User: Which sequence fits this backbone?
């Protein structure tokens, strides 16, 4: 048995006025709670250090650079890395990354239990739009402020577990999990910021948004026989509501831990990574059952082509 207690550090809202230092103090408090529960791997949300700034339109995108980090760790986040090293806690969190050569990514990093960064992921499925859209009840300008990730979907053998990262909208795409599944993933970590109402379909509110989130992660876990941890930034940020609903899902697709609030909240569950083996060796033994000769469209076609 390869058992590890895995935690999800759901975070409540972060307002524009909140400093990085204040937010990191909250993250450290969640890490202390996680340590007290025996957590060895802790998952924080997407864009964990700041408000979800892609909801704001700026004519000049450079105005948004204040939300980006040009190094990691940096002065504000170093205390979190120091605490993690002291506690022997591996962790992952998301942030807006500005590279030395001027590229902007929605990024997450993965550390080992000594707080060394062992993996970096840059969000591939960027939702939303590039220009201001007056038809929407709120803006979602990730396509304006970020470039699609350029690192692909990777896994890392970290603390004895094969771990992979994805970010928010990635969780809705089966391709995400299958790319990781084909590398033997055992723990998929996913941070998210999801508005509780669809900006283009008001009738799709909180209940259905939570359902879609669960559905996507439970299916991804089951179909690849892996644990999935999905962690929200939740609550009302600068007047805009984000849903909570952080969950830990086991390799059968069952939810084994769930957040109950929309604030800073720790969820955790003991994960036995040997439980991933059964599904990977039977119904989802990819080597025996996948029929890639019939999957050509997936790799070469983006949009739908209906025959005439
Ligand atoms: N952050 C993020 O990717 N949020 C999206 C909202 C989709 S609506 C444009 C999500 O999939 O949850």
Assistant:
């Amino acid at each position: 048995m390869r058992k590890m207690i895995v935690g999800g550090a759901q975070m409540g809202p972060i307002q524009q006025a909140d400093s990085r230092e204040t937010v990191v103090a909250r993250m450290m408090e969640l890490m202390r709670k996680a340590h007290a529960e025996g957590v060895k791997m802790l998952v924080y949300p997407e864009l964990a250090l700041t408000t979800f700034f892609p909801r704001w339109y700026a004519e000049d995108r450079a105005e948004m650079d204040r939300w980006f980090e040009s190094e990691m760790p940096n002065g504000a986040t170093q205390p979190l890395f120091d605490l993690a090293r002291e506690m022997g806690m591996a962790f992952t969190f998301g942030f807006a990354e500005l590279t030395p050569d001027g590229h902007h990514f929605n990024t997450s990093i993965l550390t080992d239990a000594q707080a060394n960064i062992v993996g970096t992921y840059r969000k591939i499925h960027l939702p939303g739009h590039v220009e201001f859209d007056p038809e929407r009840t709120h803006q979602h300008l990730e396509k304006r402020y970020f470039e699609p990730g350029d690192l692909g979907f990777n896994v890392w053998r970290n603390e004895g577990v094969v771990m992979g990262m994805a970010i928010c909208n990635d969780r809705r795409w089966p391709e995400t999990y299958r790319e990781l599944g084909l590398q033997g993933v055992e723990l998929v970590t996913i941070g998210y910021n999801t508005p509780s109402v669809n900006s283009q379909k008001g009738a799709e509110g909180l209940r259905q948004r939570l359902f879609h989130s669960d559905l996507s992660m439970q299916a991804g876990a089951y179909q690849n026989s892996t644990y999935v941890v999905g962690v929200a930034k939740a609550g009302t940020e600068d007047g805009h509501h984000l849903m909570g609903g952080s969950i830990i899902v086991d390799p059968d697709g069952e939810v084994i831990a769930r957040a109950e609030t929309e604030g800073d909240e720790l969820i955790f569950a003991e994960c036995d990574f040997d439980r991933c083996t059964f599904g990977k060796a039977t119904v989802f033994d990819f080597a025996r059952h996948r029929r890639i000769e019939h999957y050509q469209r997936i790799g070469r076609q983006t949009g739908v082509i209906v025959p005439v």
